[in-house]
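1st attempt posting a full record on here, be nice pls
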Amino acid sequence: MSQSLWVLVILAIPFSAATCCSELQGVLNDIVLSSEVAGFSLALQSYWAQQEQLLTPNCVVQPRSAEEVSTIIRTIIQFNAKARVPNGIPCQFAVKGGGHGHVVGVANIENGVTIDMSAIKAVTVNRRNTLTSVGSGAKWLDVYSKLDTLGLSVVGGRLSGIGVGGLITGGGMSFFSPLFGFACDQVDNYEIVLANGRIVNANARENPDLWAALKGGSSNFGIITRFDLKTFKSNGIWGGTVVQPVQTLPQQINAFVFFNNASNYDPYASVINTYVFTRQNGWLVSNILVYTKPQASPLALKPFTAIEPKVLNTLSVRNLSSMTLELNQFSPLGARQLFVTQTYGNDPNLLKEIFAIANTTLQTIASIPSLQYEVVFQPLPPAITSRGAATGGNALGLDPAGGSLVLAEQGISWTNAADDEAITSAAKAVFDKVDRIAEQQGLLHSWIYLNYASEWQDPIASYGRTNVVKLQAASRKYDPGGVFQSVMPGGFKLFAKNDTGRTP
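the predicted structure (as tokens):
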């Protein structure tokens, strides 16, 4: 962009943030986009949630390497040091990986700098086929389309359009989790740009405390530019979507609890049990069933496949790219989004009560024309929660001694911002009521899965005090100025609001 055009843009936006963008443009030139260029609008349109699409940064910066990310961070920090203002931070930023988050301000920012990592998306496999190096701007289809052709896989996302970075740093549920644990448990190394611009590696040998913190600690320590993921042989899977009438709910819940409680849990089997409401169809049951071997109709999934009737059945032997593409079609861009989550004991009566409470509460918002409302149950057995210890541990704080848990979620999409308050109130009301019942029955668990958490929840605190202290110590060590607590304001933080955990 010409310097004269940048001057015009600067005059139209707040001075301090505009000057920050101008300084970035002077250093990095063509990778800094203002609202006057086509690439700026395309970058905003690529977000999954409408709430994130509608935020307007002063500029979008699209680095192509870790070195350029380092230059961006150094420039912003130096600018803030020179341009101190009485109240606030002159130039704040957000970081976008895949842009599939639902919490406003995590991956985009109003009147600041959005660092869009989408150009850093290379996927390479080492000679021994034991590690796959993935740029943090990649999406899971970028990874699977490469690995499927090689007969390989990694522990990763279940939708093709989800970003690699956000999924892993929040823990990361996967079809391979019963075999290998959370996605973060299978990261051999992180390449990360720290708050001072240094590019370092974090693994079991170098910066091991940072490596452990990054396994669930989200975006609190720096900007990850590459993940080196442990890689294994995979010759395909059997899986698909099965849609059934809601009248099968008692059978569904019983099948789910039996599957989740199995003493000889089959680590190749995965289930996502979803109850979906739309005005057009009312309630339907949608099960995502996957067996991570190319073996049709495995015994472990028979409790689900035996349920009749079936409205839709896409179960087949296929590759992971095909499976994740199928699931992604049910998650289009551009709607307003809300997730909220809670974890409970594996009890059939409680799960039936969750649905009943959701169905009753739903009536307050059921007339919203564009509404799609989901109640989702996912197994969280010791087969998943026990794996992290063997790979150096993680920050998540889950104890397999607690037995089989249920990861419950409400997922809601709609189109009109005027409905935000009613939908948020309804979602809160459901889990408020369920939590009271579950607590009385000894079935309420404190853990909150960060990738499904809503903005009013505190997933970091749910990891337990010991883990929080370790995360805070890593933050003070690797980000002594609290850059990723305040200069990057979005996301779930390690310290209370307006407290970076640093002594002034």
